[in-house]
Amino acid sequence: MDKSIKHRISLVQSNKLENEYYCFDFEKPAGFTFVEGQFCVFELLNNNIEGRNSRVFSIASCSGEDNIRFATRIVDTPSEFKQALLKMQAGEEMLMTTPKGKFVLEKDYDGVFIAGGIGITPIRSMLLSKARNTRKRDDTLIYSELVECYPFKDDLEKLPGLKIIYACDIEPTQKAITDCTKKYQNNVFYYLSGSPGFVKGITGLLKENGITSDYIKFDVFVGY
């Protein structure tokens, strides 16, 4: 378990977004700060579950929003941890560590953001951040989801300076990425977020198209 400072946080609300995706909003602790794109470890106070009682989730909210939000995929036969999440009522508490991670916005560069499914969460945080909106930008979001389910779509479509490409299969995702590499080359940062296989495959595709590691940032979602 992460040994950093733990904050006691209270659930405000939970909602089913679409398909198997759920989001959870918690009260933001007084004085709590983070950089958009970072993650925390969230721990249940109930230890009477099989397996680990904590998980790592990227923060889906931006610092200008009132609550701390994370979102996750919960299938028909979830782990006991996720079963407990679903049963939580408003006012119930969890523990949250201080934020960590270097998957954050390079604000002086435009970006190509590539999200696989619920990997949209840290990208939403960055795209809604004050840091992104302090200057005029030309960003592209490639949102890849095999069942055409796009959490936070309404939030993202309101953002200025953001072109969104929805891709519901591997081939259109790869084409959109290849087109972006031809257009922007190594003049932007590429932000990848999703499952290990997704991140590995997209990283390989970017490098095949001449993008160097210096301009690739990624967040790998393990066991979400």
Could you describe the 3D structure shown?
By secondary structure, the chain is α/β, with parallel strands linked by helices. It folds into two domains: 92 residues, Elongation Factor Tu (Ef-tu), domain 3 (Beta Barrel), CATH 2.40.30.10; 110 residues, 3-Layer(aba) Sandwich (Rossmann fold). Helix content is 22%, strand content 31%. The protein contains five helices and eleven strands; from the N terminus they run βββββαββαβαβαβαβ. It has a six-stranded antiparallel sheet with strand order 4-3-6-1-2-5, with helices on one face. It starts with 5 loop residues before the first strand and ends with a strand. The model has no long low-confidence stretch (mean pLDDT 93).
List key phrases describing it.
single chain; 224 residues; alpha/beta; Elongation Factor Tu (Ef-tu), domain 3; Rossmann fold; six-stranded antiparallel β-sheet; five-stranded parallel β-sheet
List the helices and strands and how they pair.
Elements: E1 6-16, E2 21-27, E3 39-44, E4 54-58, E5 67-73, H1 80-87, E6 93-97, E7 111-116, H2 120-127, E8 139-144, H3 153-157, E9 162-167, H4 170-184, E10 189-194, H5 196-208, E11 216-220
CATH topology of the largest domain: Rossmann fold
Figure out the total of helices. Answer: 5
Oligomeric state as shown: single chain
Query: Any low-confidence stretches, pLDDT <50, length ≥5?
Result: none
Helix/strand/pairing category: alpha/beta
Report the helical percentage. 10-25%
Straight-line N-to-C gap: 17 Å
| Total beta-strand segments | 11
CATH superfamily of the largest domain: Nucleotide-binding domain of ferredoxin-NADP reductase (FNR) module
